[in-house]
Design goal:
The chain is α/β, with parallel strands linked by helices and 530 residues long. The chain is built from 15 helices and 18 strands.
Length: 530
């Protein structure tokens, strides 16, 4: 019988750890039973805590846990929840035995999201690992993969849908357009404003400066404390005007009376202050894009920044004026990369520049690869993903824009100070999806086509209630990429999406973006049916 160590990474927020523990406990029981049936013992390398959960909840704790694990043991990291990768990454850098990351195929908590973030972090750190996922841990895909890992200490997944991009694949005119943009970036240079780096332990979301500099992109390291102070200085009349602007366009806010558990108007007004402050700081420092960290630190001081982020990423948004009365970037987004994911920020800059040149929609957002399921309504035969960011998507992605968007209070277990989301169900249409990631100390990009699909209202509600109801959803079908090939390849918890007019526009946008990324030194892979 082989003894396998089990390590479980959790949140820094104890409210999330205790709330989510029953789901994690149930998953561990299933996994332990499966391994026992195969003749192996799953040994929990750290105890259940008096607080009522069994998660590693800090980097120091993770280091101490790994100090008690034989570095040559096979090791499984099992996740049914969102986890902070830096809790376990230090220990994994010196672990020599085979490593397997596992997640339950469930939308209830972001276990799949947590596992994908850890996978991307391991890839960036150059740590060898294998990965698996399952709904009930009794399907052939999971069992066959687990047996392979147990026997060989490693497991690979089908990547036949991935093809390297060569500039020769793009039209000559598209290559010329890409070269012109690349020369422009290197000559004029761009700034990414980073309001505190490293959100929620996302090591995979930090791009080393030396990989950005050759392409003419530089970081302005800003502080969330500066954003907080600037928000407190925004006058009441300006914040109220931004709020009224959204009301006038049909935005729905779901208010209650108890600020500890319900959304209040005061929370939204404070979010409008932060929106105005963020626009002005982006203008002051000349940032082409900004990212706000917010999940730690600001969550205890101010309502969540999600509503702010959706507002920023929309072309049609409340006007913000400089001291001289001129409007900052009138009719344009202030490009924002949620959760200060710099890989998404760089990708968003490529999208903004290429789509503007092509006359395609410039609004873009990242989403978590939260979950996916067959269409229970029977409307579609395809597997339909639930892409769901933890708070805000641009209203331009929703049917009816602002009038098709609504705001709910962020869950109290994550955000004690509350704050509204910017929720909607993404409108149907052709999309381009992508992800920039770091591997072997170099930048890579995966890119592909897909469609946001229109599901019946009851199916949208089912999917939303199976995840976090206050958060926006894109129901997506990817072209030529299955559930398991996507999971086996993707190097992040996040995926970037942008709309295009039709399939022809998608192929053109992909060609120019791939050529531009290549010009900038990014290795590009085309995924699925391009």
């Amino acid at each position: 019988m082989t003894k396998i160590a089990l390590v479980v990474s959790g949140d820094l927020r104890e409210s999330a750890n205790t709330t989510c523990w029953p789901a994690q406990k149930a998953m561990e029981a299933k996994l332990s039973a499966v391994l026992a049936d195969l003749g192996h013992e799953l040994w929990r390398a750290h105890p259940i805590k008096p607080e009522g959960h069994g998660f590693i909840s800090s980097q120091r704790e993770g280091m101490d846990v790994f100090a008690g694990i034989d570095p040559d043991m096979p090791l499984i990291i099992a996740e049914a929840v969102w986890q902070y990768s830096h809790h376990v990454l230090p220990g994994l850098t010196t672990h020599k035995g085979p490593i397997l990351t596992v997640a339950n195929w469930s939308g209830q908590y972001p276990g799949l999201v947590g596992m994908l973030n850890l996978n991307g972090s391991l890839t960036k750190a150059g740590i060898a690992y294998s990965t698996l996922w399952s709904r009930d841990f009794d399907d052939a895909f999971f069992l066959d993969g687990l047996k392979t890992w147990l026997a060989d200490g490693k497991l690979s997944h089908d990547q036949s849908h991935v093809k390297p991009f060569s500039p020769a694949l793009a039209d000559e005119s598209d290559r010329a357009a890409a070269a012109q943009i690349a020369d422009e970036w290197r000559r004029d240079k761009l700034i990414m404003g980073v309001f505190d780096e490293g959100c929620m332990g996302m090591y995979n979301a930090i791009i080393p400066d030396e990989l950005l500099m050759p392409m003419g992109v530089f970081k302005e390291r800003l502080s969330q404390s500066a954003l907080y102070f600037a928000a407190t200085q925004v006058p009441d009349d300006e914040a109220n005007a931004a709020y009224q602007w959204m009301l006038d366009r049909g935005m729905t806010f779901h208010f209650g009376a108890d600020p500890k558990t319900e959304l209040t108007e005061d929370q939204v007004i404070d979010q409008c202050r932060m929106y105005i402050a963020a626009v002005r700081l982006a203008d002051q420092f000349g940032c082409a894009a900004i990212g706000i960290q917010y999940q730690q630190g600001l969550k205890d001081l101010w309502p969540a920044s999600d509503l702010v982020e959706g507002m920023l990423n929309n072309s049609e948004r409340p006007p913000v004026a400089r001291a001289d009365g001129s409007v900052i970037r009138d009719g344009e987004p202030v490009v924002h990369f949620n959760e200060v994911d710099e890989c998404a920020g760089l990708d968003a800059l490529l999208i903004n520049r290429v789509h503007a040149a092509l006359g395609q929609p410039v609004e873009t957002t990242l989403h978590d690869i939260r979950w996916g399921d067959d269409d229970a309504s029977g409307t579609m035969d395809d597997f339909v993903w639930v892409f769901e960011i933890s708070g805000a998507a641009p209203p331009a992605h929703h049917p009816g824009g602002w009038a098709g968007s609504e705001s709910y209070r962020q869950p109290a277990m994550f955000f004690p100070a509350g704050g509204g989301t910017l929720k909607g169900y993404a409108k149907p249409g052709d999309i381009v999806w992508s992800r920039i990631f770091v591997k072997d100390n170099a930048l890579h990009m995966d890119i592909g086509r897909g469609k946001a699909v229109d599901l019946p209202a009851e199916e949208c509600e089912r999917r939303s209630k199976a995840t976090d109801y206050p958060w926006p959803i894109m129901s997506a079908v990817l072209s030529g990429v299955s559930r398991d090939t996507m999971m086996g390849r993707h190097q992040a918890n996040h995926v970037q999406v942008a709309y295009v007019d039709d399939e022809a526009a998608a192929r053109r946008a992909i060609g120019i973006r791939a050529a531009l990324a290549t010009e900038l030194g990014i290795a590009v892979s085309l995924c699925g049916d391009i």
